[in-house]
Amino acid sequence: MSRAALLLCQVLVAVVALAMWQLFATVPVFGRIWLPPFFFSNPIDVVSQIVNWFSTGVIWKHLAITLWESILAFVIGSALGILVGFWFARQPRVAAVFDPYVKMTNALPRVVLAPIFALWFGLGIWSKVALGVTLVFFIVFFNVYQGVKEVSTTVLDNGRMLGMSERQLMRHVYWPSALSWMFSSLHTSVGFAVVGAVVGEYLGAAAGLGYLIQQAEGVFDVAGVFAGMFVLSAFVILIDMAVTLVERRLLVWRPTAAREA
Amino acid sequence: MDKAKPTAKPTAVALEDATVAFRLADARVYTAVEKARLAVAHGEFVAIVGPTGCGKSTLLNVAAGLLKPAAGAVRIFDQPLTGLNRDAGYLFQADALFPWKTAIDNVAIGLEIKGTPRRKALEQAQAWLTSVGLGAFANRYPHMLSGGQRKRVGLAQVLIRDPKILLMDEPFGPLDAQTRQVMGNLLLELWTADRKAVLFVTHDLEEAIALADRVVIMSAGPGSRIIGDWRVELPRPRDIFEVRLDKQFHELHREIWGVLKEEVMKGYAQSTQAGGAD
Description:
The complex is a heterodimer of chains A (261) and B (278).
Chain A: H1 3-26, H2 37-40, H3 43-56, H4 58-90, H5 92-107, H6 114-121, H7 125-149, H8 153-161, H9 166-184, H10 186-203, H11 209-218, H12 222-250, H13 255-260
Helix pairs in contact in A: 3-12, 4-5, 4-7, 4-10, 4-11, 6-7, 7-9, 7-10, 10-11, 10-12, 11-12
Chain B: E1 11-23, E2 29-41, E3 45-49, H1 56-64, E4 71-76, E5 79-80, E6 88-91, H2 103-112, H3 118-131, H4 147-159, E7 165-169, H5 177-193, E8 197-202, H6 205-211, E9 214-218, E10 226-231, H7 240-243, H8 247-273
Parallel strand pairs in B: 3-8, 3-9, 6-7, 7-8
Antiparallel strand pairs in B: 1-2, 1-4, 4-5, 9-10
Helix pairs in contact in B: 2-3, 2-4, 3-4, 4-5, 6-8
């Protein structure tokens, strides 16, 4: 299928889906409205809500807050993940001692931490950042840990035979290997940073996309809920595209990344 | 059998009754190499040939200092070897290039870690890439290069540090027959320009005779020993394509193969019964 035809088909799916939604929400079929407006709203109302948000400019503040929380969660979570990942991988004894606790913490559904974080860090951005950090940390941690552990012994021996000291091995062998594992999970970790932020906002906040959705839900404004969802997905797609760009730049040396580019 | 005579040149690598053993998972001890005695003179090209799993690579790792012998000693230029062999460059059988570095960075790193300024290291790396025929591929990453090209980068990476000893573990093993011959000639060309002691492990007897001054044969493992040592008197400079047509080459090949064949059959029989260590 050519690019144009593919794009046409993709647009067609959206058009058909929206048309059906509009139809069943507004026109009686076989004597009844299949999608009651109270529960399902309709595309025109949703779009006008989105347009309203952007034309009045209220949405920017919420987007900025969510973006900022996601970035902070990603940066702090990654930094901690890299640090601890390296530490555990280089100190097997430490890793062995902490292993059950790492598994236990990771097994915990992170959402239940939100109330605790709200208590500890208040209703501002930091409770959301903390939630995002707990999600991002484990992904980065496991990948860095794996990356350091799975360095090819031949490459490592080669580094040693070329005369590398432990510090130089760290810089030229372990570090790039760990980073490549981390970057390969970049989409997941960035996605989780956003999830942490939005869920945190949803559970208690004064601003952000999650807050917006929660507010609309609170007054049974279904159009508002859907509008928030659409803005959120567009937001995540934009971030994901940015991540792809970064990834292509950083992982040029990897066969798969190069083939996709 | 024409036993190699001791030479007056200093000994670059000397294995003195080196025995290497591994502890297996079930607590048994597997003796890979037993009492290996081998001396490589300065500037001498020695090839080690043996059946699969005979511990050829093990012997090389001992000379490199990557493995410690359970008994016996290793001397490098008459000094006992402790830790890694700093005089040696090692060309591995598997891909050992840093996949996240471009070809030129892979070559330059050997100098950079010694503290050579980056600009100067890159200059020399470019010169080395040119001399292995990859001058135009400096900015490629390893995965963008063919197997033969990667071996060339590996060769440049090792040689740029100007090691006095070159250890090579079936370096051209994964390559196709033609590329192997081209690489063999390249190696001889580089080696002739600056004679280093070379310890070259291969399972290919023809390759060994074509390249080396001496061919050493190992018996099938476990507990493999050095069972033969032939001097190759073929004139240098050699061309690997042509040296194989030489009458002397054929005679030597027949003579060594007579000994090697038996070991190869033994090694094959063992490898079909139980997994070897190699």
